[in-house]
What does this fold into?
Amino acid sequence: MTGYRFLDPALLAKIDNLELVARTVVDGFISGLHRSSYLGRSVDFAEHRAYMPGDDIRRIDWRVFGRSDRFFVKEFEADTNANFTIVLDVSRSMAYGSGAVTKLDYARFLAASLAWFARRQRDRIGLVTFDGSVRTAIPPSAKHLDVILHALDTLEPGGAGTLLAPFERVAELVRRRSLLLVISDLYEDPDVVTRAVGRLAAGGNDVMVFQVLDPAERTFPFEEAADFEDLETGERLPVVPGEQREEYVALMDAHVSNVGRGLIAGGVDYAVFETSQPLDFALFEFLTRRQRLSRVR
It folds into this structure.
């Protein structure tokens, strides 16, 4: 599926209203799905329900209307209500951005868009933010969209991050089977990532992990020698990029590969995105993976 220009994160960063960003992204994404004939063809039909104001009139079943003189819309497997919680990394390293959009900006846009999309699906939406500990915990509810958007809109990068302690706390907070989406740069040892995410899945939860990275973190395009700062620890290290680029890229590729391999082996849905990618890439991944989880249940 190709991206649409108005889903470009750099353009979205110029909109000073997160709710408008979320609505723009989701409306454009759904419009693209309709144009590609994705909706209604790749999603399994589940049941009918009474039409409600705001429903897409294209999903009205006119044959049922002809028999009953009442409006009903078709619901699909991806529409069935679920507890959906976004688990968002706000540690200091997420503040990095080589261009107009930081990793935290991208994660914020993505989280807001997914929350807006989930409301359209009539899911109960929650949000957890974390660095070295849980910073925000909004329990899943059908009425929490405004609270979540406000929390996302006022986010500031936190301190040094870790996964094990916050995820143990998240596992305690999630009391009903839920769909959990982790959005993080995953700067931890791959074995620690696997163990931490495993805590989330241990309670029977469905878990997805979206790793968000800046393009420069993958390619190390810098030319001039400089002191590079570790955003998590504040440590500065003199680096000559031309001499160390090849080794850096190999180590980074190995880290991403090992993280993904460990998560997938544990039955976790995993995808990696760069902050230059249009948001519909991530939304499409979320929708298709959620449909697969719905069929497995």
About this structure: The chain has ten helices and ten strands.
